[in-house]
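writing this on my phone so excuse typos. first protein, seq and then structure
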Amino acid sequence: MTAVVLQARLDSSRLPQKAMLCIDGKPLVLHVMNALKEIFANIHVLACPDDSFGVFKPLAEEAGFKIVSGPKEDVLERFCIVIREFKIDRIIRATGDNPFVFTDAASLLNEEAVKLNCDYAGFSELPYGAGVESVSASALLKAANETELPFDREHVCPYLYNNPQVFKLHRPSAPSQWKYPQIRLTVDTQEDFDKAKILYNALKNNPNRYNGTTIIEVFKKLF
């Protein structure tokens, strides 16, 4: 059982309430979920803090996502809640500030991770905000059992890739068509959000709008 799991929250220091800022009349987090639905998985889940559940629940339902809630600062535990509740074997991890995830790259990465039976997989040198991570559920449960460091628990995967002697890692460079690390696609500041609106409007009628090569081509023309 494979799940796409999106972590998202309402409070953000650099761009307050960014998850609910609207692009084309819909909140950012809904755009993220709509993109992630293009990634094949058995289930799609939004994992949010307890204090965000009421706001996110109708949006998750609109996008066709299940929703679970858990500790605000212990994001790793939120993922473990998803694993236990839905009996997950593998997670494709995504974050709520990335509306331009390369869904084709995500699918390829997960295929490679499954084929190699990796505990952790992630492409390097993608545009910032374009990628996901593919992680085995057993590795996340092991990490949760072994680390109490706040950094590990907030960021979910560092305990895995910082312990290569324990976990099987797959961290290749991105294929050449997606290798543009100088491009920034995440939404973390007002400037990022303003660019995201422009990019979204340029892509929204494109049938390949979730394709990494298409996103890169349009971004380069605009910026």
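second protein below, same order as before
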Amino acid sequence: MKLYIYYRISDKSRPKEKLLNGDRFSCLRNAIKEFGAENIHVIADNCEKQTVDFIRSFEKDGLTHEEITLGNSGSFVFMLDKIIKTRKPDDYVYLLEDDYLHKSGSKKVILEGLEIADYVTLYDHPDKYKLTIDGGNYFNIKNLQKTRIYLTKSTHWRECNSTTMTFSCKVQTLIDNYHIWKKYTKTFIPKDNLVFCEISQSSISDLFMFFIKMQKTRFLILLRNQFKKNKMKNIISAIPSFSTHTELASIAPIINWDVI
């Protein structure tokens, strides 16, 4: 089954402390190894000549690319519109940022996940295991959010309410949620947590965000229960991870990513 990879890379990203093997060039090499250059279209946003030359070195293997200067949210919306205009609704796509590493077999696992869920991420985000007050997920208010566990041929999955801007789905799913994606990409940096919470739960209101900031637990629980009644599309993440964000503060647990 075909999986189309849309890879966003930029030289203007915020500086972060990362894995030694987690630089942009290493991550792109890793993606090519796991998904095949012929399946990857790179969107190079605000990239210097060295980066562009590096990307072009893989064109002989079938990789394609284009250059833009739109910034983080702007490049995502550009990619979103391109996918919707050029791909069929039933096509599978993987929207991938430039700071992720993947384990062997990642493509196979993504396709397994897409058989049972609307949105699939290979990244087991560590915020799922922390309370909100400690920097964890918005819904881990007094205790960790309960979830469902699924099994496919190669791995287990957990249902979750959010992930990052690196994920896989059908093109039709992007079309269905287009208005939500546009809503949370008006700022320079996309509000990934909020967009997925609205996609998977319900509308995340300004009131909800106010209560989070004020740590008003009782009101948050009432709002969270309301979200549960209005669930829309489901998101699953592989456990343990088949990929990780390379920022040291957000490394997926259990796996030794230094050897990837």
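The radius of gyration is 18 Å. thats all i got for now
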